[in-house]
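Sequence in, structure out. First:
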Amino acid sequence: MNTLDEPTAAAEPVIEVRGAHAHYRTASGPLPVLDGVDLTVGRGEVLAVVGPSGCGKTTLLKSLQGLAALDRGSVTLQGRPPDAGSTDTGYVFQQPSLFPWWSVRKNIEFGLRLRAHSGRPSAARRRARADELLELVGLTGFHDFRPAALSGGMQQRVNLARALATDPVALLLDEPFSAVDTLTRERLQRVLSETLHALGTAAVIVTHDIHEAVFLGDRVAVMSERPGRIVETFEVDGKRPRTGEFQHGEYLAAVSARVYQRLRSGDERASASELATTRGPVAARSPEPRLPLRKGTADA
């Protein structure tokens, strides 16, 4: 267990967050959402982030992509502020976000097509890159399929391939497997572990699934209730890519139990605080408003 938010190995820092504070805009005034978050992710390292709903996990992820503005603090990717319009990061959402009218191969080529003319690969190179990634995620032979012809799990594999097509500095994943069944989810976790290991890509994955966090992460960062801060970091031993045996082994279960206890202890303290300041039943939380986005992005 490690209470310092530093890479487990002396790897070159890829992501650095220092003193990140952010708030939501509400009708009654600002609502703090991040409270001094510090973290570092090294090259080839996977950091999994878990925490209660509404603690700012997705806000943190969006700040790494340059989509959410911080009030104070800094975020850098290889020493530079993130740019929402660049291909420095690849983002995988909860739901597949493929263009239904394009083939699988064209969907994967999308990011490559957006590059400036000086750096845009040729059509032949785009095709070759897409086919390399299809093989990597286990979808060789599906290049001409439309998304509607694929299962949800297969669509998420295409999403993963598309996010990796531009060789991003870091891969950001927001609950990427929450919409699929348990067996598919476990299979996709193994695919992701194998893919990240093969490419050596740094990654940050936000998830509510503690077992998933421990299976995928070199470290698991636990966030507090809103306003979110990292209260503890657990190191995970075990070589990557991780196997099905590791996925259902005693070690993963033991680390998951420790992470769960840390989350539960924080939740119990929060509940006690609410009961001490609220007469009658604990007041229901209102839906979360949204953070201001970077200029030039749509609030949708």
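Second:
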Amino acid sequence: MYYNDIAYIDKLDRLQEVYPMSAALSEAIGVSRRSLLNWRDRPDSIKVEHRFNIDVLYCKHFVIPVWDTKKQSFTPVLLPDELSSNELLLTPFLRRISYGTIEIETGMARDDFERAVDAKKLPKNMSIEVFHEAVNTYLTHKWLWQKCITHGERFVISEEGIRSLHGDFMRGLRDDAGFYSGKVRVMGGLEAVHTTLPEDIPEEMNRWVFKCKGVETMDEIARAHAYFIAIHPFGDGNGRVGRGLVMAQCLNAGLMPPLFDGENRALYYAAMEHAMVHGRHAPLIRLFIESAKRGRQA
């Protein structure tokens, strides 16, 4: 994504146009005004989490408005035939899409992901949580591919299937893996969005399945994803499950699944917030299409 090629000092200069008072900008980023001054002299001192916050703000104010145009038309990115029959292409693709969805949520190091996936047992100096997160995610994506492509079976979009998907992703990580949350959930990175109340989750998920089980275009899949994340039915792992459903829906429809990772993470968050808060999905749909092209090139 092109915003990654812009220097952070240049991004701060542009954001200063939106937040003329340094106090407002520092609050939006989550740092002190002193930090803003220090960054001017030492831009390499900007921490990873603050770089992400700057990127989200930049995307929110300078990318999303440009992408938010009506009546856009996109060419579907079809699943290439050579991917399904070439193990040398398929394995790297599955690893990249699996690591990407973990990178977005946890910031896991790529080396740790690869060590966990390749290991026959828990690697040295690795927590059991990191091991389970990496292996569960890779094996779940691999299973989705084998079911939909290798064996030619559709992933049936149902509440049971979604809860089972959560169980696959979160096995060994949460005691409530595979069950809806009974508590109020806070949506990390999207504070402006309120999740569905616990007592309303079953009804809202039933409605989601009814509306989204038959989606076949990237437009519909992107809208369904924003709807699912807004519900946030599980105590943790909603992003992984949501993006897993995106992959399943794309494979059902013969479309290339979008690749989400650290490269487009900030735009993903900004586009999701725009869709959920303002009900405007054009930027998210465009992101899905652009990210599917990235996946095809992976």
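Remark: Residues 128-150 form the longest helix (23 residues).
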